[in-house]
Amino acid sequence: MQTRHHPLLSPSLGSQRSLVSFHFGQPGHGEKVHIQASLHADELPGMLVAWHLKQRLLQLESEGAILGEIAVLPVANPIGLNQNLSSRLQGRFELMSGQNFNRHYLALAEPVSAAVFGKLGGDAKANTRLIRAAMKAELARYQAQSELQSLRHALHSLACDADIMLDLHCDSRADLHLYTGTPLWEQCEPLARYLGACASLLAEDSGDQPFDEACSQPWWQLRDLAAKAGLSAPIEMACLAVTIELRGENDVNHEYAARDADGIIHFLQHRGVIAGGAPRLPPLRHPATPLAGSEDLLAPHPGVVVYHAEPGSQLAPGDLVADVIDPLRDISSQVRTQRGGVLYATSDRPYATAGLGIARVAGSTAFKQGKLLTA
């Protein structure tokens, strides 16, 4: 294992933070895998999973079983980890700018297309190498102007040439689910099976350039730009980028973390990054659905929330999800799903303000347009 430190831009006199990455295997041998945790710094189940992975990978490396290169970043956001207000960690948004740590990464398709379209040929693998080199060159030219920009730049630079990028997050109160690009589902399905995902949400553009799409989206955008330009050069979907939501914020325990680390190891065996036969693929809990088919259930008025359905439940249209009770006016309102599907996440707040999102249901039919992610 190699340990590497990546200094971030100093935000103030006498202060500087850095990212730490742990590298297993050998660069240039087999597929490259980038695994990071807690980019939203208050989402800690992934940090524990990353620690379990690190212990497993140390043993596998000593056995000569790592056939590719695997980088693990257990702490992907040292900035957010130091943001505390009234003893509560505030890790989703940078306090200085108000920006989400998982938005606004560099869009690479346009500058990369300008750099490579005159050089692409009939060899898909050679085209992938050209495109990755152009991505690295574009990122190397970027000059960060703030600590947040330098964090985004460091993470993107580490992952831009990965064959597999796994971003470990969690929701408020949830069953395990994941997000990935629609063109990547065939590659991603074994991972969803090994992890036991209750829902797999697909999109080509969810809005505001989150980290997973910054890594994977350029490949299908380049494919489409090439077709528009009349180029017949083959372009691979060369980065499987997946955001894995490891249940809820309070689901931090060794049992879950060990199970999730096993699922990731089994997937990497399936891909051939780790030696040894992968276990037989488990059943898929639920077919993949469009992110644009996710139904947001809102509180119709303020009140106490009482849930009738648990995350992971399969719901039919009209099923009751929660009551919202106003004890001052003696109003009890029922919140029901209109479309049905898998209830994959709920709020963890027992009190709702008017219009608060209290649950999300993965439906099979797309009906939304525009930005598909919450703030």
UniProtKB/TrEMBL annotation:
The keyword Cell division does not apply. It comes from the Bacteria. Residues 30-270 form the Succinylglutamate desuccinylase/Aspartoacylase catalytic domain. It comes from Chromobacterium sphagni. Its cofactor is Zn(2+). The keyword Zinc applies. The lineage of its organism: Bacteria, Pseudomonadati, Pseudomonadota, Betaproteobacteria, Neisseriales. Coiled coil: none annotated. Keywords: Hydrolase, Metal-binding, Zinc. Gene3D superfamilies: Zn peptidases. One of its GO terms (molecular function) is hydrolase activity, acting on ester bonds. This is Succinylglutamate desuccinylase. InterPro entries: AstE_AspA_cat, N-alpha-Ac-DABA_deacetylase. Pfam families: AstE_AspA_cat (PF24827).
